[in-house]
Amino acid sequence: MFRQIFQNIQGIELLPTFTLLFFFTFFVAVFIMAYRLDKKFINYMGLLPLDSDDTLNENKSGDENVTN
Amino acid sequence: MSNDSTVSVNPKDLETFSYDNVIVRNFAWATIIWGIVGFLVGLIIAIQMFAPAYFPFLDVGISYLSFGRLRPLHTNAVIFAFVGNAIFMGVYYSLPRLAKAPMWSILLSKLHFWGWQLIIVSAAVTFPLGLTQGKEYAELIWPIDVAVAVVWVIFGINMLMTLIKRRERHMYVAIWFYIASWVTVAVLHIVNSLVIPYSLLSSYPIYTGVQDALVQWWYGHNAVAFFLTTPFLGLMYYFLPKAANRPVYSYRLSIIHFWSLIFLYIWAGPHHLLYSSTPDWVQSLGTVFSIMLIAPSWGGMINGLLTLRGVWDKVREDPILKFMVVAITAYGMAVFEGPMLSIKSFNALSHFTDWTIAHVHVGALGWNGMLTFAILYWIIPKMWKTDLYSKKLANLHFWIGFLGILIYAAPLYWAGITQGLMWKQFSPDGFLMYRNFLETVTHLVPMYAIRALGGTLFLTGAIVMLYNLIMTMKRGTFMAEETFKAPAMVSSHNEKVNHRWLEGKPMPFLIASLIVILVGGIFEIVPMQVIKSNVPTITSVKPYTPLELHGRDIYIREGCYLCHSQMIRPFRNETERYGEYSKAGEFVYDTPFQWGSKRTGPDLHRIGGKYPHAWHYQHMYDPQSIAPGSIMPRYPWLLENSLDTSHTSNKIRALMTLNFPYPHGYDNVAYIDVQTQAMEIVEDLKISGIETTYDKEIIALIAYLQRLGTDIKGESKPIFSKP
After folding, report:
1. Does B54 score more than 60 pLDDT?
2. Sign of CA pseudo-dihedral B691, B695, B701, B703
3. Is A63 a residue whose pLDDT tops 50?
4. I need a surface site. Which of A57, B115, B345, B570 has the fewest CB within 10 A?
5. Which CATH superfamily is domain B546-707 in?
6. Beta bridge partners of B642
7. Helix, strand counts (H, E) of chain B
């Protein structure tokens, strides 16, 4: 299948340009997605490694270290 | 703040479970021991690179200790044994704690641990014996490759099942890095290890020439990416907040960091093949993606360093944070340098020189080494419920380690640039200034000696750490298990969709990252395998004769490719020095390809016919007798050993399955041609006054060397007996 597809591409040299655009789209999508995430959720996620040693998640609130 | 992801629970609903520290301890020990072994072997080969010039008596001429056989041992020990065990140590510690669930199966954990150590031991046995596949960082022979795949799958099942059984609904970004690393390494390992075995221990890759080169460096580059980098970024995202006791600077940035990094990394492999006989479009692909890689890589570095903002006073006191800062900074330097080296004009100077070696050591010693040490200093007191035995010694380790890296890297940067310039230097009347390659080598020998000093310091630091950690263990008591309580995971219907995105689902997440890396892989690899025009055929290029093939396998066994390239780049200084530049079509019967990545010795692609047989005979016996001051090892055993011809027909048969145009049934008569061609060389040597017999290994090696690069000149007309 791939054989036909690729052999029919006239300008395989254009591949880098094409993939560049492809990545750019991907990047913008991830960027938008990341910035649309809820702030509380982001804080919660950032603190996961810190309270994973505790039994309960009680000390999640009011942490002055939280960014974003 | 009340978080809608946190559910308030009745203490009665808490489930009790415990984390297994034994597996973490075992991997920690393995990390320390194999680390020291890996550094030590590195030091030995570093000494070998200047010893022949300064201390000829150190060059004992023992095959098992030869540079070409120990170098793969060093690289594999550091990458797969030291860094590998460090990854597993960190994953087995952090994953259960982030998932709030013990590892799914203690049995699988154990199988993983012992399987991996067995693989390392078999590597340590096979490499000195010269059992290798001859592709850098993929040297393990095929049965061990199979074992690696099995153990890797065991690790993956254990990890994924732990995630499926987890109590924390959300998967922290460190886990993303673990999953993506796991799946990508699986793909890389399988694709690059596809071979046709011709004996219980040996095989030929299914790819040849340019294709093999491309698959190999797609693998090699991404082994750096998905073994040395992404798992360690996962560790950074867990252990840095732990050590600094504050969350990562920006969790949003870490999301962007993750996705753009894994997307971009997979494409950049061809930057190892700039100016080689690969098509231009492949090379541009490598350059473009490598340069873009700076952005996410630096995003990660900045995220790491900024996590420490506001606690710099702590950094000054805490050796663990110091190690981490140097690790992250070294990461930042290496990932800036990498893209620079991918720019063609830089690469023209740096490639094949020691610059590359300096570059990888900033990464390996700085990033992997220092971060591993930091984690060990953090994790051991924690599991032994005590404080570190001596902060002073840890600081001492930090400083000698840091100094060691500087003293390692600086002379090699200097050596790399100097050698690159010397190779290119023309005299005013248009001749190569340093026509004799050896001149450029002897010039660097003092730098190699200083480099070994840097390595000694780094190794000493690791030994200081070993002592410090043993004393720490002695003063504490090891907690084999840590018991915790957490609520079971509740179903999440009531959550907003964007909260749950991919990060709550291990399997879809794995598949998503698989797709992301496959896109790059497919665009890079598939066109190369299928488009004929990528490798223009040259009709005068013929397969190797059976004797030459045996010689080639000796070349691979001895690791000549670790010092010699077989790729003449299209620069005037190279064509002047070595002859016609290398064409893609010349390599169609090379499996594995032997282009090499470093020129400690000169390129050998057109060595065929350059010297008489007797020259090679003498040179292989004792290079210094012909090239005084040479740092090439002696190979006296090649003159003694009889050639193993028991696999002649198996080898030919394996290659015939790859459609090499040997006459039908040739596998049955190939042994006749081995003898005929060997006799011719023996006769020729006799004329020069050298008495030997046709069955010696050196004869096969000479046959191979004399064939190299001669096909396009139409000089070589291999004769294949009719069956």
Report:
1. yes
2. positive
3. no
4. B345
5. Cytochrome c-like domain (1.10.760.10)
6. B696
7. 30, 4
CB-nearest to A41 from B256, B285, B499 is B499
**B168 and A48: CB-CB below 8 Å?**
yes
> Are A44 and B263 a contacting pair at CB < 8 A?
no
pTM of the predicted structure, to 2 decimals: 0.93
Least confident of B14-23, B108-117, B285-294, B637-646: B285-294
Q: Which of A48, A53, A60 to mutate to test the interface with B (most CBs of B within 10 A)?
A: A48
* Residue A64 touches partner B, C-beta closer than 8 Å: no
* CA distances in angstroms from B220 to B131, B216, B277, B300, listed in the order given: 19, 6, 18, 22
With CA atoms as reference, the chain B residue closest to A30 would be: B256
Angle at B279 between CA B274 and CA B282, to 5 degrees: 65
B170 to A45: CB separation less than 8 angstroms, yes or no = yes
CB contact under 8 A, B496 and A45: no
| Burial call A36-64: b when 16+ CB within 10 Å, e when fewer | ebeebbbbbbbbbbbbbeeebbeebeeee
B50-59, B153-162, B583-592: least confidently modelled range: B50-59
Phi, psi of B82 (to 5 degrees): -70, -65
Residue with token string 């015939």: B656
Per domain, the residue ranges of chain B are 23-526, 546-707
- Among candidate residues B12, B646, B79, the one with its CA nearest the CA of residue B365: B79
pLDDT in tens, B603-658: 999 999 999 999 999 999 999 999 999 999 999 999 999 999 999 999 999 999 99
CA quadruple B648, B651, B656, B659: dihedral positive or negative?
A: negative
CA–CA distance, B108 with B105 (Å, rounded to integer): 5
Give the model's pLDDT for residue B3: 42
Q: How confident is the model at residue B527 (pLDDT cuts 50, 70, 90)?
A: confident
Cβ neighbours around B524 below 10 Å, total: 24
- List A residues 32-61 in contact with B (Cβ-Cβ < 8 A): 33-38, 40-50, 52-53, 55-57, 60-61
Closest CA to B375 of A49, A62, A28, A7: A49
The Cα B5–Cα A41 span in angstroms is: 7
CATH placement of domain B23-526 = 1.20.210.10
CA angle B487, B491, B496 (to 5 degrees): 115
Shortest Cα distance, chain A CAs vs residue B414, angstroms: 34
B531 — pLDDT class (breaks 50, 70, 90):
low
When the pLDDT of each residue in chain B is averaged and rounded to a whole number, the result is 92
Is B265 in contact with B233 (CB distance < 8 Å)? Answer: no
Question: Are the folds of B23-526 and B546-707 the same?
Answer: no
Closest alpha carbon to B433 in B446, B444, B421: B421
Spatial distance between the Cα atoms of B87 and B90, rounded to a whole number of angstroms: 5
Compute the distance between CA of residue B241 and CA of residue A45 in angstroms, rounded to an integer: 12
Residue B539 identity (one-letter amino acid): T
pLDDT in tens, B474-494: 999 999 999 988 888 765 544
Number of residues in chain A: 68
- Give every CB contact of residue B334 below 8 A, 6+ residues apart in sequence: B359, B362, B363, B366, B367
Q: Whole-angstrom Cα distance, residue A34 to residue B299?
A: 14
Q: List, as ranges, residues 460-519 from B with C-beta within 8 Å of A.
A: 484-486, 496, 498-499, 501, 519
The backbone torsions φ and ψ at residue B18, rounded to the nearest 5 degrees and listed phi first, read -135, 150
- Report the residue from A7, A12, A37 with minimal CB separation from B498: A37
Per CB-CB distance under 8 Å, the chain A contacts of B172 are 45, 48-49
Q: Which among B19, B252, B254 is the top mutation candidate for probing chain A, defined by the most A β-carbons within 10 Å of its own β-carbon?
A: B252
State which H helix or E strand residue B346 sits in. helix B344-350
